[in-house]
Amino acid sequence: MENKLMRAVQYNAYGGGSTGLKHVEVPIPSPSKDEVLIKLEAASINPFDWKVQKRMLWPFLPPKFPYIPCTDVAGEVMMVGKGVKKFKTGDKVVGLVSPFSGGGLAEFAVVKESVTASIPQEISASECVGLPVAGLTALQALTKSIGIKLDGSGERKNILITAASGGVGHYAVQLAKLGNTHVTATCGARNMEIVKKLGADEVIDYKTPIGVELKSPSGKKYDAVVHCASDFPWSVFEPNLSTNGKVVDITPSSASMLTFALTKITFSKKQLVPLLLIPKGRDLQFLVDLIKQGKLKTIIDSKFPLAKAEDGWSKSIDGHATGKIIFEF
Fold it and tell me: Which residues form the Enoyl reductase (ER) domain (predicted)?
């Protein structure tokens, strides 16, 4: 496919939101060692993507302009690089594009074999494409940071999940209920029934008094919190935690990092722990297998063609999506 062009969406500078996106034709990338070239059937946007555009990850990302955003991709393998062993041309896969190279919002993308998983033929790309960032974040928070065993064994834990109808939150509710947990979840009033159907034991409207205070309706103290929302200071979490309670912050700010340091310095048994996603192909495959088994599902808020990428970008920035926003090709 050398010298052939593909359609893509990129931005050439920081800022601008959806109006900063430009539709272009660029060369189809070639897979390097240990990479696969995927013809995309679907891509997914995460808040991380537009935060990079807003210069919130400067000076690390993007490495240069122009930059093609989005990291969640799924589709068909068209070519494999040297050293690739698990995949071959024609395989259906889902993977995570490196944010340092970018390239997910395009007709073709290259992905490392180590962060790619197979998709069974009976499952669509759109059902799996939300997993690489949001699904893996939820999985890592619950199993690695909190220590929940998804086979239902282990000590019972009371868990709070904030913004439970969002991308990470809706996966976190479902995964937590595979473990030995009691799940309290917060979301907007319009999504409360959806979150209940996902398995949450208690659902709180975040705008009500107990929602603002994050209190469990049954009076439970939380052994752990998967914090997917923003604007909650440590002082709100602290009185609601059990003796060794832990808050896992999936989008840590400078304020939460300071709280993390202070809880360490003061030897507090209650902790705020920032989460840094470490994606692994075997974890991604685990999530795809759960979808195949009917134990996990992706709620799709809306779908957009590449030609209307700006609309999906704006909807994500607006911050009220239920589940995932998907681009289909």
Answer: 16-327
Name the amino acid, one letter, at 52: V
Domain that holds residue 154: 134-274
Query: What span, in angstroms and rounded, lies between the C-alpha atoms of 137 and 131?
Result: 9
Q: Are 35 and 70 in contact (CB under 8 A)?
A: no
The verdict on 188 and 110 lying in the same domain is no
Other beta carbons within 10 angstroms of residue 45's beta carbon come to 28
Do residue 141 and residue 106 come from a single domain?
no
Name the β-bridge partners of 249: 227, 274
236-256 per-position pLDDT tens digit: 999 999 999 999 999 866 565
C-alpha–C-alpha distance, residues 13 and 25, integer Å: 18
pTM above 0.85, yes or no: yes
Give the whole-angstrom CA distance, residue 293 versus residue 295. Answer: 6
> For the segment 167-200, what is each residue's pLDDT rounded down to a tens digit?
999 999 999 999 999 999 999 999 999 999 999 9
